[in-house]
Amino acid sequence: MTPQRIAAKFLVEPDPAAAVALEPVIGLFHRFIQEQSLPGLLLDVADYAHVPDGPGVVLIGHDVDYGIDLSDGQAGLLVVRKRFAGQAFGEVLRDTLGRALTAAQAIGQESDLGLRFASDALTLHFFDRLVTPNSDEAFESVRGEVEPVAECLYGAASYEISRVRSEDRRKALSLSIRGSGEIAPPSALIERLSA
Amino acid sequence: MSHASWKQTLEGRIDPGWAEEIDHFEGQLELRRQGKIEEKVFAETRLRRGVYGQRYDNGKRHDGVAERPLAFEEKPTKGPDTLWDAPGMQRIKIPFGGVSPEQLEVLAELAEDYSDNILHVTTRQDFQLHFVHIEDTPDLMRRLAAVDITTREACGNSVRNVTACPRAGVCRGEAFDVSPYAHALMRFLLGHPDVQDFGRKFKPAFSGCEHEACGLVQMHDGGYVARMRDGKRGFKVVVGGGLGPVPHQAQVLSEFTPEEELLPQMQAVCRVFARLGEKRNRGRARIKFLVAKLGIEEFRRLVEEERVTLPHDDRWTAFLDDMPHTSGEAVLEPGPLGDAGRSPGFEAWHRSNVYAQRQEGYAMATVHLPLGDMTSDQARSLADIARRFAGENLRTTVDQNVVIRFVPDAELPALYEALCAVGLGAPGAGTIADVVTCPGTDTCKLGIAASRGLGSEMIRRLQAKAGTLPEAVEALSIKASGCFNSCGQHHISDIGFYGNSRKIDGRTVPHFQVILGGQRQENGGSYGLAVGSVPSKAVPLAIEALTGAFAEGREPDESFQAWSARLGKRSMRELIKPLMSVGPYAEEPEFYSDWSDVREFTIGDLGVGECAGEVVSLFGIEVVKAEAQAFDAQIALDDGDAGGAESLAYAAMLSAARALVRTEFIDVTEQPEDVVAEFRTRFFENERFFDKYAKGKFGAYLLERHANPDTTVDDALAARRIEEAQLFIEAAHACEARMTAEAAEVPA
Ligand code: SF4
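Above: inputs. Below: predicted complex with iron/sulfur cluster.
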């Protein structure tokens, strides 16, 4: 069964712990809405810059949210896919990553902003306490869905999946994927996902 | 692998009555989705369960260039003009703000699973989750119900969350702990048949004492102040307070209601309100209008009469038998605060965020949440911290913070470190940097200006100045509302704001009306008064001008309220006057957008985009006269001339109406009869003056005053008339803006 929400986070490079100027992101996200630059039904911009280690600035959509997220003290692009009833887990996973990489590319092209995202690693969160509780069993089941997608991105045997945030079972189930060897540019990764 | 639903998973863990209600709601939801029940009926049903609409849920949004439709799938609506798939807000009632670590953990999960990872504390001790889809709400409610939280009557024309001072039970000055009474009142009235037929909502609040600020009972529909008489517990009961467009101070219903009479008396109040309160005109339907209309003596007589007829109910007193006699147990032994283990920043945090409890050796620590927001991770950490230091003792506050009670003094340095580690160690609780705001244009459909954007900017600026401001300035309060409805409680802060707009250079400029000298002490004992509107982007400078003048000019120990009253509104206005004007768009474009928003400002998603027009309209020139009269009315009231103030306020409404009429009929005379007749036919009867939400409320202020002048005028009436005049003028501005936009839309 597919969880209600799947989120992918790509960290800012070179230093995700460095401060990020969020004010220009507000303008950018409003422009993205005007120009419909990202996939999904885009609705509004929510500013949470005042919350320490919070969601930062979020482009709220109907089926997807895009945010410059500061959680865990690590700035990154967090893309939350939602409202996809009836779709298969793997399909939603690919779609989530495709959208995240598309957004990473679009934001990365904004030279004034100076935000780039590392594509050799990402974190996935599964927000659904019924379908994907933060348990060993759920992790194994999710891993089975994630592996083909990770392989598609980074190639067979060129990635590592590890569970994160497992020390606190109240948190959503999360895992990280780290690619090794030569990492293709985001445009190529997007193509692979949609192939 | 198939999974059980939340309904199956939580079976047996939810109060059967609550479970049935949620099932019923889910059934209604499905029926509406199939188009089998009326949208209005469903809207009422969902609102009573705290499921609100949110900004742009009519499917239209101005993106800064043009108003564009939001391409949601075609489905039945959730209510009039409210699209099914548009995200909404879920309000979650937290009686007296009491929240346990377990409940906080569930709220944290819900914020991640259904919302945007933010738990928002409101000015009425509720939680709110935003951007929630309607179809997720039944499961969300089940998960809450499993930890003893209901969203029932979190909205709708019913009894809302019962609030109480967060210090209840630990306060050094309280008569006794009011929390169990607040809890009993909530339980008794929840779903009670006598509270289902109100014309508007009813907000109750409890306070443990008369003079502090925490309970704010004076601004509530029903307020209860703990009192002891001859060794017996009871309450001073007040009714008919309220903020909103026309604020009222509550009046005394009873100087002492014994504890066993608390519930039946309240039931009688509810019956009288349901029977005699206004039902058709929402703008006059709060109990404050009924109390004002009947007079408190007559209202009291009716309540007493009703009380006698009530059939006996065991629940009136049953709660007294098993009422807890403590306000939670400490988990750690008390101990004195030592010098060891204090990290940098501890002293400042201790100064502003820690309150010594009446229980020797224990303290209450305030977790300062910026704009009432915390993340799910922070909420879980807070639950852990509470368990470690204080057990079940958490409360939300009307200042949008959370307090942890029963922390041993000796543990405060460790508590501070634990809070800092998760971004919750900000000092400044209860200081000028603890800015309170309503959601404003971020999510509220009625918002005019960005109160949260302004709040965020003020927090940033004021935190940067922490420790450098004079002590008297540091102690001030700032509250902002996105519109005149006052959810940010701006009337009771030293410096308050509510959002409005002005037409300048053919465009709309976001503004905030400045309200000065409100009083939080004495349970919100008096309200501030408006001194003028400042462009949104100039508000930080206005605050600097006001606080600077206060720091320099105050007498020793003089409060902001006393200082502003001593100088008078004319002088206050002079302080902000240099900031009130805005240059043309070409020269000062930054004034034409709001905080946290780069779009050119419009009066929201309600209307069409606005095009540049002439520099100063005829209306613009004429309406200035109305604003000056409204201001002079306040001065007259300050000078003790209630009659003069009331006449000036009426004259201000006439001038604003005439300004509108003259845009179409330049030769209208200045005779009140003529102005009112023309206003009525040209703007009121055809509903052009009507606000989308308030409808004809503001226009009716003039018509009612004109038709029924009061023969005796006291201060309260004059103050109310001034508020009405200000709202009428705002509505005239909005009406003119709509007319200009419509004219710009007509093809040449
Ligand atoms: S004051 Fe106005 S903008 Fe703020 S929440 Fe209330 S209705 Fe909305």
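The helical segments of chain A are 23-35, 89-108, 136-154, 186-194.
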